[in-house]
C-alpha cells in the first residue's frame, strides 16, 4: 500500500482573493509546475492487458506486418509491468502553519501563478486567513530583501511569523500554506448538525444535494457547511461525523448517506415548534397565503397573502390582439402587483426586483394595461402575475421572514379585456356645484355665497391647503405634521411609513445580484434585470438550455453585431456552431439556418413546375427520353415510335388513332389498368365508353381525342392522352392524385398535381401518411 501512495508537498503563497474570486466550494488552483511534480511523484501501478483480447494493441502495431509482432510483445510486457497514474480525484490537505489549522480540498485546475496557490473563500475562512492580510501585496512584490530570513516581519495576518519555512516563497505576498497530496477514502456517511432551529427537510434536501455535487470534492469534519437557499437565505451545518471514520472523506463517485441531527434536545423541540407553526401558515390554509394557480379572463379571484410572501398566478389563454387590464384591489396599501411574460427571453416569476410590469402605488386599486403592441409579449407563451405583501416597517423585498403574529392581507384580482377606458374618464367638477356657490380660496371647496365669510373665518383658523398636491389638512393634525412630498418626483403622503416605503422603492441604491450594476430604485433594477443584465436567464434557441444571456467570453450586449442580429450574446456565440442542411447537405451556422432555409423555400416557389407526361394515366415527369414535343414519357411514347420519315406527322397521328381503337375494341388486358378509354379497364368514367361497341361509335369517341393533338415537332403539344401504361406509372399517378386531393401539404402550402407527380417519382412511389410512420 505504501508504494501506491502519492507523496508530494509544497509550501506556496496564498493568492489574493481577487485571483480566487471564481473558485467554488473546496476548490484550489495550483501552478503548472505542481502538475509536473505530481506526475513525477505518481506511484507506479500494475496495468495488466487482457491476454484474450486481441483488440488491445499499441498504436504502432500493424497486423499485416510480421516484423511488428516482436515489438508488440515487448510493449505488452512493459505495459503489464508498471505505469504511472495519478489518482482520481486529486485531493489535498492544506495546512496553515500560523495556527496549525488544516482542511481538505479538491483541484480545479493548474493555472495559478508560479509558487502560488489560489484558495476559495470557504477554504481561506477554514484556515483562518483573513482577506485584509493581502493589503500589502504590492509592496511585498518589490525586489526581495536579502536579509528577509534574519527577522524581517512578514505582513500576513497582522503580525510576525516565526518558524522554519514560514516566509513567502520568492518574496511573494500573502500568507504561506503547506499543500500535501492526500488520498481520501470514498465517503459513505456524513452527519450534519444545523446551527439554527427550524430547518424544514423540504428546504435543504434538494439544495444540499445540488450544492455538494457542484462545489465540493471533499468534506472535512469540524467545518461549517453553508448551503445557499432560494430566497437569499442560507442554511449552516456543522460537519460532525463521517464514515469511514477520520478527519475527511471524498464525496466524488460514491453514494453518500446524510443524516441531519439536532445539536441538542432544546433545538429539536424548537425546530418541531417552528415546523408546526409553518405548517399552520402554509399556502392554502386559513392563516397562510393563497395557493395561486391558473387564471381565466373575467374571473374574480378573492385571495390573501402573508407579508413578505408572493402569490403566483398564470394566464395561459387570451386573444393576442386584445388589450389586457390587470387589476388588484385591496384595503392595505402595502400589497403590490407585478407581471412578466413567459417566453424564450423571460423565464422568471415576477418579483419586486425583477418584473416587466409593476405597480408600487399606495392606492387601493393597482392597475396596469398590457397592450398587444408591447415588444415584451413577442413569443410569450403565458403571462406570470404575482401579488406581494410588503412587511410592515421593512424594506420592499426584504428577505427577512415576517413576524409570526402578522395576519394575511386580503385582496381581489381580475383580468379583463373590455371597458379599459372607463378608468381614464374624469368627471367634470366644474358643474358639480349649485348656482350661486363660490369657491373658498383656502380649501377650494364650493360653498353658498351667503355663508362664505363665516366659512372662510373658520377655514383659515383650522385648515391649511397644500399647494403641491391640492389636499387640505387640519393645522394640528398628525397628517399635516407628517405630510411629505418627494423632491425627485410627484409622490406624496401623510405618514412616515409611506415615506420610508417610497424611498425604499424608488430612491434607495440597489446592487444587481447577477452583475456589477448599481441602480437607484426597484423599478430601475427590475428593468435592468429583465432587459440588459448579463445574468438574465434565457432559453437558448440553439442549445435549448436555460442559460445567462451573456457569458464571460461572449460579446457585449451593445456590440453592433449583437444588436443587428437580434440575438443575445450567448445565442450569437452558440449559434456559431455549424450543422448540415438536411436539404442540400451544406455546412451552415445554426444562426444562419433560418435564412438558409428561406432561400430554399424561395427557390422552390420561384422555380417552374416540372413537366409531366400528358398521358392522364402516367405518373412520370419528362426527362431527356421520350418525345417532348408530344409531351409523352419514354414508356408512353414507346409503342408509337417508328423510324420512318414523317415530317408532317400524318403517320404519327394515324398511329395514335389506331392506339385508341385498339384500347376500346380489345383492351390492354392488364389487371391494374384504370384507363377510362380501355375496354378492360376497371374505371369507365368517360361518357359513352361502355355503350360504344361498334367501330363507328368508337371512331366518334376517339376523334375528339386525336384532333387537338399537335404532331408538329416544332410546336409543343398541350392536348392530353389517355393511353394504357405500365403498373408503376399507373400507381404513381394514383398516388399523386391522392396527395393533390388532400389540398394542403405539411408546411401549410397547397401543391398542384405536377409537383405531386414529381414527388411520387422522386420517392419511388412510397408514401406514408402523417401520424402513421
TrEMBL record:
Domain DUF7590: from-to ranges: 288-417
A GO term from the CC aspect: VCP-NPL4-UFD1 AAA ATPase complex
InterPro entries: AZUL, AZUL_sf, DUF7590, Ufd1-like, Ufd1-like_Nn, UFD1_N2
Ubiquitin fusion degradation protein UFD1 N-terminal subdomain domain: residues covered: 186-261
Boundaries of every Ubiquitin-protein ligase E3A N-terminal zinc-binding domain copy: 658-685
Source superkingdom: Eukaryota
Pfam entry (one): UFD1_N2
GO biological process: ERAD pathway; ubiquitin-dependent protein catabolic process
Molecular function as annotated in GO: polyubiquitin modification-dependent protein binding
PANTHER family in UniProt: FUSION DEGRADATION PROTEIN (UFD1), PUTATIVE (AFU_ORTHOLOGUE AFUA_4G04640)-RELATED, UBIQUITIN FUSION DEGRADATON PROTEIN 1
Name under which the protein is recorded: Ubiquitin-protein ligase E3A N-terminal zinc-binding domain-containing protein
Organism: Penicillium canariense
Amino acid at each position: 500500500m505504501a508504494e501506491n501512495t502519492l507523496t508530494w508537498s509544497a509550501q506556496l503563497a496564498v493568492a489574493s482573493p481577487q485571483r480566487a474570486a471564481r473558485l467554488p466550494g473546496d476548490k484550489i488552483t495550483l501552478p503548472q509546475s505542481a502538475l509536473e511534480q505530481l506526475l513525477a511523484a505518481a506511484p507506479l501501478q500494475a496495468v495488466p492487458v487482457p491476454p484474450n483480447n486481441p483488440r488491445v494493441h499499441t498504436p504502432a502495431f500493424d497486423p499485416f506486418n510480421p516484423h511488428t509482432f516482436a515489438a508488440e510483445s515487448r510493449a505488452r510486457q512493459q505495459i503489464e509491468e508498471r505505469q504511472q497514474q495519478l489518482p482520481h480525484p486529486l485531493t489535498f490537505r492544506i495546512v496553515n502553519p500560523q495556527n496549525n489549522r488544516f482542511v481538505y480540498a479538491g483541484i480545479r485546475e493548474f493555472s495559478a501563478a508560479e509558487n502560488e496557490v489560489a484558495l476559495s473563500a470557504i477554504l481561506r475562512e477554514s484556515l483562518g486567513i483573513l482577506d485584509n492580510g493581502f493589503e500589502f501585496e504590492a509592496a511585498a512584490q518589490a525586489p526581495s530583501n536579502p536579509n528577509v530570513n534574519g527577522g524581517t516581519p512578514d505582513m500576513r495576518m497582522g503580525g510576525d511569523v516565526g518558524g522554519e519555512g514560514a516566509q513567502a516563497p520568492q518574496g511573494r505576498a500573502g500568507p504561506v500554506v503547506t499543500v500535501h497530496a492526500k488520498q481520501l477514502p470514498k465517503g459513505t456517511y456524513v452527519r450534519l448538525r444545523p446551527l439554527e432551529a427550524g430547518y424544514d427537510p423540504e428546504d435543504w434536501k434538494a439544495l444540499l444535494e445540488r450544492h455538494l455535487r457542484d462545489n465540493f470534492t471533499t468534506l472535512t469534519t469540524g467545518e461549517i457547511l453553508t448551503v445557499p437557499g432560494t430566497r437569499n437565505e442560507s442554511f449552516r451545518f456543522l460537519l460532525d461525523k463521517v464514515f469511514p471514520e477520520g478527519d475527511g472523506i471524498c464525496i466524488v463517485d460514491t453514494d453518500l448517506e446524510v443524516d441531519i441531527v439536532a445539536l441538542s434536545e432544546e433545538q429539536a423541540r424548537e425546530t418541531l415548534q417552528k415546523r408546526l407553526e409553518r405548517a399552520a401558515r402554509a399556502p392554502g390554509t386559513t392563516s397562510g397565503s393563497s395557493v395561486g394557480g391558473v387564471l381565466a379572463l373575467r374571473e374574480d379571484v378573492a385571495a390573501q397573502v402573508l407579508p413578505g410572501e408572493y402569490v403566483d398566478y398564470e394566464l395561459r389563454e387570451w386573444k393576442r390582439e386584445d388589450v389586457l387590464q390587470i387589476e388588484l384591489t385591496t384595503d392595505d396599501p402595502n400589497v403590490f402587483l407585478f407581471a412578466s411574460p413567459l417566453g424564450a427571453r423571460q423565464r422568471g416569476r415576477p418579483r419586486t426586483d425583477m418584473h416587466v410590469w409593476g405597480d408600487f402605488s399606495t392606492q387601493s386599486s393597482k392597475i396596469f394595461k398590457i397592450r398587444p403592441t408591447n415588444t415584451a409579449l413577442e413569443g410569450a407563451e403565458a403571462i406570470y402575475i404575482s401579488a406581494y405583501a410588503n412587511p410592515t416597517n421593512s424594506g420592499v423585498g426584504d428577505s427577512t421572514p415576517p413576524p409570526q403574529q402578522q395576519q394575511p392581507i386580503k385582496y381581489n384580482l381580475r383580468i379583463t379585456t373590455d371597458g379599459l377606458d372607463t378608468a381614464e374618464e374624469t368627471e367634470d367638477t366644474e358643474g358639480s356645484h349649485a348656482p350661486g356657490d363660490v369657491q373658498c380660496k383656502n380649501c377650494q371647496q364650493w360653498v353658498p355665497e351667503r355663508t362664505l365669510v363665516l366659512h372662510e373665518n373658520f377655514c383659515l383658523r383650522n385648515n391649511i391647503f397644500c399647494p403641491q398636491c391640492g389636499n387640505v389638512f387640519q393645522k394640528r393634525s398628525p397628517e399635516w405634521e407628517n405630510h411629505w412630498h418627494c423632491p425627485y418626483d410627484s409622490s406624496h403622503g401623510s405618514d412616515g411609513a409611506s415615506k420610508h416605503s417610497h424611498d425604499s422603492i424608488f430612491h434607495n441604491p440597489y446592487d444587481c445580484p447577477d452583475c456589477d450594476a448599481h441602480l437607484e430604485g426597484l423599478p430601475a433594477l427590475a428593468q435592468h434585470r429583465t432587459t440588459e443584465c448579463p445574468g438574465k436567464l434565457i432559453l437558448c434557441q440553439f442549445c435549448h438550455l436555460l442559460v445567462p444571456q451573456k457569458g464571460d467570453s461572449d460579446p457585449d450586449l451593445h456590440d453592433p453585431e449583437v444588436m443587428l442580429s437580434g440575438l443575445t450574446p450567448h445565442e450569437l456565440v452558440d449559434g456559431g456552431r455549424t450543422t448540415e442542411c438536411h436539404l442540400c447537405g451544406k455546412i451552415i451556422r445554426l444562426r444562419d439556418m433560418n435564412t438558409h432555409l428561406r432561400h430554399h423555400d424561395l427557390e422552390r416557389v420561384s422555380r417552374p413546375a416540372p413537366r409531366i407526361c400528358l398521358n392522364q394515366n402516367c405518373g412520370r415527369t419528362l426527362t431527356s427520353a421520350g418525345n417532348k414535343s408530344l409531351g409523352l414519357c419514354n414508356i408512353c411514347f414507346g409503342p408509337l415510335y417508328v423510324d420512318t420519315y414523317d415530317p408532317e406527322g400524318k403517320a404519327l397521328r394515324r398511329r395514335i388513332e389506331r392506339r385508341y381503337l385498339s384500347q376500346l375494341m380489345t383492351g390492354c388486358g392488364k389487371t391494374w389498368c384504370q384507363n377510362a378509354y380501355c375496354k378492360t379497364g376497371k374505371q369507365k368514367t368517360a361518357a359513352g365508353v361502355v355503350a360504344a361497341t361498334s367501330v363507328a361509335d368508337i371512331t366518334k369517341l376517339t376523334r375528339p381525342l386525336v384532333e387537338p393533338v399537335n404532331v408538329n415537332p416544332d410546336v409543343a403539344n398541350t392536348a392530353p392522352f389517355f393511353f394504357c401504361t405500365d403498373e408503376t406509372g399507373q400507381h404513381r399517378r394514383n398516388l399523386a392524385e391522392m396527395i393533390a386531393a388532400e389540398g394542403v401539404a405539411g408546411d401549410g402550402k397547397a401543391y398542384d398535381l405536377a409537383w405531386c407527380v414529381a414527388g411520387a417519382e422522386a420517392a419511388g412511389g412510397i408514401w406514408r401518411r402523417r401520424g402513421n410512420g
